[in-house]
Every structure is written in C-alpha cells, then in structure tokens.
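Tokens in:
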C-alpha cells in the first residue's frame, strides 16, 4: 500500500487537524472525509479494519 507522508513545516496542518502528538495517522476515505484518526503508532489491525470499512 502506498500513502503520502506530509511534512508540516509551518504547523498549519497540526492546527487545522488538531494534531497533539506524533505520529498521528489519518485514514481519509475516497470522498476526502476523515474516517478515522490514530494518535501514536499504527498497527496492521488498524489498517485492516479501515480498509474493510471502505470495502463495505
């Protein structure tokens, strides 16, 4: 799976998405809606659960 990694050089993303810890991972659905947020280290189980939700 490929996904973008964003660097928040000026802190604007952190402010806009209320990021209080790093790493913080966002799962964004195909409509561009934030479907889940995980502060801390992500697990394969978290990825699998979110992918299954997309598949319905």
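Residues out:
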């Amino acid at each position: 799976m490929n996904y973008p990694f964003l660097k928040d050089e000026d802190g604007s993303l952190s402010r806009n998405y209320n990021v209080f810890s790093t790493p913080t991972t966002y799962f964004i659905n195909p409509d561009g809606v934030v479907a889940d947020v995980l502060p801390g280290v992500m697990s394969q189980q978290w990825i699998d659960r979110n992918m299954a939700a997309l598949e319905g």
